[in-house]
Amino acid sequence: MKESVVVAMSGGVDSSAAAYLLKREGYNVIGMTLKTWPKELCDTVPKSQTCCSTRDIEDARAVAAHLGIPFYVVEASVPFKSQVMDYFVESYSKGRTPNPCVVCNRKIKTGILLEKAQALGIERLATGHYASVVWDEKRKRHAVRQAVDGNKDQSYGRRSSVGRARDS
Questions:
Q1: pTM of this prediction?
Q2: Which of 16, 62, 109, 132 has a Cα at 20 to 30 A from 94?
Q3: Which residues are bridge partners to 128 per DSSP?
Q4: Could you read off the pLDDT of 16-68 as tens digits, one per residue?
Q5: What's the start-to-end Cα distance of the chain, in Å?
Q6: Helix (H) or strand (E) holding 145
Q7: Are 105 and 111 in contact (CB under 8 A)?
Q8: Dihedral sign from CA coordinates of 55, 52, 115, 83
Q9: Strands (E), 17-140
């Protein structure tokens, strides 16, 4: 068996496919998802109007069970509110058009999930995002960059046609 990798599972097709492909390639795959919304909001807001809901968590859990991989839910509703939602409301109230996904991906998803993976002794985190990963020699680490196909890009880079960061 190859090394272990944590897959950030959203309950959607892309992250489920990433988990499946990594498992098929022989990696020891561990699924993780973040609980970013308080349960009372998840029970009242339609699934089509939220991401990362408890319903999404159950979808991810079902995929993990089908793949036969361990699955963990990481509580992140407090930092999500303070670092993503409060930022969004403050920016919007100042007439800006913020993209909360950009902040969430950088501060919550990647940060918290990688921290949890490392606590398990795992140095690799995979997502279902369509982007390019390059080695940043100056910073001595990997970095996410715009994907080859700009129409599918989910890197939230400046030139990205899908996930363009819009806050000023």
A1: 0.73
A2: 109
A3: none
A4: 999 999 999 999 999 999 888 776 666 666 655 566 677 888 999 999 999 99
A5: 46
A6: strand 141-145
A7: no
A8: negative
A9: 28-35, 71-75, 125-126, 132-136
Half-sphere exposure (Cβ direction) of 79: Cα atoms closer than 13 Å: 16
CB atoms within 10 A of CB 85: 16
For residues 100 and 84, is the Cβ–Cβ distance under 8 A? yes
CB 37 within 8 A of CB 52: yes
Token representation of residue 108: 């919550």
| 46: amino acid identity, one letter | P
The residue behind tokens 């990433």 is 18
CATH number of 4-128: 3.40.50.620
Q: Where in the chain is the domain with CATH 3.40.50.620?
A: 4-128
- Residue in the block written with tokens 């806050």: 167
**22: closest CA among 32, 12, 35, 7?**
7
